[in-house]
Amino acid sequence: MPAALWIAHVKVTDPERYAKYAAAATKAIADHEGVFLARNGAYEQLEGNDRARNVVARFPSLQKAHDCYYSEAYQAALEFARDASERDLMILEELD
Fold first, then answer.
1. How far apart are CA 93 and CA 84, in angstroms?
2. What CA–CA distance (Å, rounded) separates 66 from 53?
3. Number of domains present in the structure of the chain
4. H-helix or E-strand containing 5?
5. Is the pTM of this model over 0.85?
6. Is the dihedral of CA 11, 87, 40, 51 positive or negative?
7. pLDDT per position in the chain (96 positions), as tens?
8. What positions does the domain DUF1330 occupy (predicted)?
9. Which among 92, 73, 69 has a CA at the least distance from the CA of 23?
10. 15 membership: H or E segment, kind and range
11. How far is C-alpha 28 from the geometric centre of its chain's CA atoms?
């Protein structure tokens, strides 16, 4: 079964509130066997919308990534992000 990636591009508009999201989301992601591969590091925007916070997390499967997003813990964390950021988030299955 191929692993899956969460890929997020974020513009933080309220750093204090977003920090609360990040703390709670980190735990929810770990609880679903997610591991961060990149998180707010240096980047070069080549095309599209520039959002300074970029995050990639790997999960053991697409289902685990999906279950994390819809989990009670992640949805609670997401409440902090809703009015504190502009976000794009997707799940992408890796090549097998």
1. 28
2. 21
3. 1
4. strand 4-12
5. yes
6. negative
7. 899 999 999 999 999 999 999 999 999 999 999 999 999 999 999 999 999 999 999 999 999 999 999 999 999 999 999 999 999 999 999 998
8. 4-94
9. 73
10. helix 15-31
11. 11
The first and second tokens of residue 92, run together, are 């992408």
Nearest-angstrom CA–CA distance, 13 and 72: 24
Which pair of tokens denotes residue 7? Answer: 């890929």
By residue range, what is the domain housing residue 86?
Answer: 4-43+51-93
Tokens of residue 6, six digits? 């969460």
Token pair for residue 34? 């997610």
Give kind and range of the element (H or E) at residue 81. Answer: helix 72-82
CATH number at residue 56: 3.30.70.100
Residues 22, 36 contacting (CB under 8 angstroms): no
